[in-house]
Inverse folding.
């Protein structure tokens, strides 16, 4: 049954693709000549919007030059056409996509450093500059009236429409599969938190540049198709203002969702066409798109998300009515029956993490001063201290987010002090954050697989989720409360098989009951998953229950260190905590 479900899930996109081809063919035969021409425009716009859906919708990067990539694709197709390059239109179209993809990487390079308005200016500036260049130099063959040769099998408008549908289906299927891959998860992760992305071993630059490349390649394919549609492309089809309007359509519709990209493509053609029929100048279409964009930006959501949220809400209500409340408790209790491979660690085993003389200075403030500690394999060390003691600074420095630190950090005897956060994470030093860094656009399963960075079978994944009291793999993270998301973050990090896992206040946001349960589960992680844990926690009850060893920081220095019980009774530690309102003794 499970196998049948899985096969169905794998086959479904391909079945939908074949059905879409069937519908496309029927439309190519059934629609009137004029509507067929409009429908080709709809398809080319949809492909460009699909690309925008990746860069803006998934990766959260502003890019206002999508039609410039279209112009690059059209230029390459025109040039190959006048050069009578071998392979014909289909090969030229692919070349246009690749050329635009390369341009996308080049334009994406500033995006590694720029954000928001600055990036908008750069991309719009590129669009404006390219537009001026195109108007001056024209497309190859434009002056001589050289028509672009369509593929022999798809030479009429009807046939070319079906060809455009085939291209759209291939692009949409590619985007669908990419969105569900590691690359797609990296786009959504980088949109939510760059630090969170780097901390799980994913290069932020690779995530951003791949989003730009794929998006621009789709823009190039769209432009190449448009060139084939019109025969002789003109710069007026690829102006910066049109790129802006397309961007607005993409954010308004939620174009990272394929159906909404198609909806955006339909609007792109339908609005000007309706205005034309009503005798209103077509440029008013930009005003309509502008109003829709303002509405989307002010509501903070998009049409696709709103529709899906409504559907999910109804499904959840129906599911809640059907669930037997007793069954949940049983599964949580079952988790504690899972046997663990307990191999004793020799007392003289070398530390997995050794920090020596760590120092961090912010201006005149010494946030960390000569901090040293050793974490033994499969141990749980608590890192505690009053507010502002330097705990989070310690985690940032050890995990590579504060490269200016002094002192040494060794993982399994290897000095990692000079490595980036990504490299440290890949070597098995994982961390979580005090703030929520779990991208809500992903499902629990997609997030866990992305963080784990290794092949996980479904049972292993479901087991670890249940072990930490997390929701099932198919649950959308947007539907999960922040406290539970922190647990999913821990489960995912644990499944990556880290040598050391540093948890920065992982129980924040959990109820008292969940807090206790979390503590119980935490004590079993080291032996079950063969990892050592360093936990920062304010709740000394939890610290007392789970930690074998403690390091206490105060004003950036180590105040006390050693066996947990003894450290908590140290008069200096008690004095440091006196009056700290957040501590519960
Ligand atoms: N980026 C920064 N620039 C300047 N000062 C900073 C910066 N980050 C932290 N600090 C300062 O360094 C000191 C240690 O801060 P840190 O956040 O590490 O403490 P903490 O023990 O984690 O506190 P809390 O328990 O409240 O999270 C504080 O005085 C803080 O104001």
């Amino acid at each position: 049954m499970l196998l049948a479900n899985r096969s169905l899930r794998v086959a479904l996109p391909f079945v939908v693709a074949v059905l879409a081809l069937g519908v496309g063919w029927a439309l190519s035969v059934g629609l009137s000549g004029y509507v067929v021409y409009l429908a080709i425009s709809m398809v080319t716009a949809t492909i460009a919007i699909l690309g925008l859906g990746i860069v803006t919708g998934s990766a959260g990067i502003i890019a206002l030059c999508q039609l410039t990539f279209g112009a690059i694709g059209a230029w390459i197709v025109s040039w190959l056409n006048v050069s009578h390059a071998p392979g014909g239109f289909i090969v030229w179209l692919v070349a246009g996509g690749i050329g635009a993809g390369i341009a996308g990487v080049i334009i994406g390079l500033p995006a590694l450093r720029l954000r928001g308005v600055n990036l908008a200016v750069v991309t719009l500036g590129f669009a404006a500059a390219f537009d001026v260049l195109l108007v001056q130099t024209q497309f190859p063959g434009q002056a001589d009236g050289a028509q672009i040769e369509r593929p022999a099998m798809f030479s009429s408008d009807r046939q070319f429409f079906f060809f455009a549908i085939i291209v759209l289906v291939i692009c949409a299927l590619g985007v669908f599969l990419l969105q569900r891959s590691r690359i797609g998860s990296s786009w959504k992760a980088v949109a939510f938190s760059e630090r969170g992305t780097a901390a799980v071993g994913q290069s932020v630059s690779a995530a951003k540049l791949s989003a730009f490349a794929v998006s621009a390649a789709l823009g190039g394919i769209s432009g190449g198709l448009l060139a084939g549609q019109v025969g002789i492309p003109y710069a007026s089809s690829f102006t910066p203002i049109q790129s802006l309007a397309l961007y607005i359509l993409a954010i308004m519709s939620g174009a990272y969702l394929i159906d909404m990209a198609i909806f955006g493509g339909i609007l792109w053609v339908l609005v000007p066409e309706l205005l034309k029929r009503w005798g209103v100048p077509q440029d008013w279409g930009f005003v309509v798109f502008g109003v829709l964009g303002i509405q989307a930006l002010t509501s903070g959501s998009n049409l696709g998300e709103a529709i899906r949220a409504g559907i999910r809400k109804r499904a959840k209500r129906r599911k809640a009515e059907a669930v037997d409340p007793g069954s949940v408790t049983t599964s949580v209790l079952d988790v504690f029956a899972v046997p663990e491979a307990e191999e004793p660690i020799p007392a003289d085993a070398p530390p997995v993490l050794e920090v020596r003389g760590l120092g961090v200075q912010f201006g005149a403030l010494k946030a960390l001063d000569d901090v040293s500690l050793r974490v033994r394999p499969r141990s749980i060390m608590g890192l505690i201290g009053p507010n502002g003691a330097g705990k989070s600074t310690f985690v940032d420095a050890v995990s590579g987010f504060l490269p200016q630190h002094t002192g040494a950090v060794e993982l399994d005897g290897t000095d990692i002090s000079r490595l980036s956060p990504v490299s440290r994470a890949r070597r098995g030093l994982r961390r979580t954050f005090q703030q929520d860094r779990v991208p809500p656009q992903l499902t629990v399963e997609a997030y866990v697989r992305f963080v784990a960075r290794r092949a996980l079978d479904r049972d292993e994944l479901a087991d670890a989720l249940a072990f930490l009291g997390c929701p099932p793999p198919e649950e959308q993270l947007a539907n999960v409360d922040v406290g539970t998301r922190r647990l999913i973050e821990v489960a995912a990090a644990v499944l990556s098989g880290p040598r050391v896992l540093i948890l920065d206040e992982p129980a924040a946001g959990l109820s008292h009951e969940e807090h206790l349960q979390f503590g119980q589960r935490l004590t079993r992680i080291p032996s079950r998953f063969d990892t050592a844990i360093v936990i920062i926690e304010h709740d000394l009850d939890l610290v007392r229950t789970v930690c074998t060893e403690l390091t206490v920081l105060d004003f950036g220095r180590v105040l006390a260190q050693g066996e947990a019980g003894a450290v908590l009774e140290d008069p200096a530690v008690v004095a440091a905590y006196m009056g700290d309102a957040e501590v519960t003794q």
